[in-house]
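Please decode residue identities from the backbone states below.
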């Protein structure tokens, strides 16, 4: 499954003299509700996590299993969150960058970031953006799992207080059932009101 997910980039950067290399990814950018969650993860080359892959390609059960293994075997990791209020105030992409910066800061000492798809403005360390990095780079794949599972758990908590929206099933993304629930009940405080879905709604 994960034959193409390797430590190639991390190994190359270590050979160039960098010591504290993290992979960075986020979850929730395309959702209609809930926060953005980013993660930064530093994995030792001997972490023996052969099943790592883009979190979107894994089952919920496998993500949960790998989440615990990544936490156990990483040498450092950090989680960063941008709230719905921050998404609406700053805009989606700036809020995403904010969550990523927070994740990197939370990971402790870092001298290089390998980022899925983007490069992050406003960080002092060197970085490299890799398109589809979560399916190629082990530390990014690990970060994608940390971000996805953390966000899913947040959405399960929101489901407990707002069961009518079924956040437990779609995790805030714009499924038919979710849009129908919004049409029936109106948006709640966890919905991103600046999205076109809510144009004209109170």
């Amino acid at each position: 499954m994960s034959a193409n997910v390797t430590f190639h980039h991390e190994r190359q950067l270590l050979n160039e003299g960098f010591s504290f290399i993290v992979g960075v990814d986020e979850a929730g950018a395309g959702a209609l509700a809930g926060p953005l969650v980013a993660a930064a993860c530093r994995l030792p080359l001997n972490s023996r996590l052969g099943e790592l892959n883009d979190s979107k390609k894994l089952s919920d059960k496998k993500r949960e299993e790998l989440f615990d293994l990544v936490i156990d075997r990483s040498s450092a990791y950090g989680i960063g969150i941008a709230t719905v209020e921050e998404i609406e105030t700053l805009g989606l992409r700036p809020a995403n960058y904010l969550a990523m910066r927070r994740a990197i800061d939370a990971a402790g000492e870092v001298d290089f970031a390998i980022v899925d798809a983007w490069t992050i403005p406003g960080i002092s360390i060197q970085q490299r953006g890799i398109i589809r990095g979560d399916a190629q780079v082990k530390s990014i794949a690990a970060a994608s799992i940390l971000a996805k599972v953390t966000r899913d758990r947040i959405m399960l908590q929101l489901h407990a207080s707002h069961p009518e929206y079924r956040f437990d099933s779609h995790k805030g993304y714009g499924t038919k059932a979710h849009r129908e629930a919004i049409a029936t009940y109106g948006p709640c405080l966890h919905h991103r009101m600046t999205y076109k879905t809510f144009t004209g709604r109170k």
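Observation: The beta strands are 21-27, 36-42, 76-82, 112-116, 126-130.
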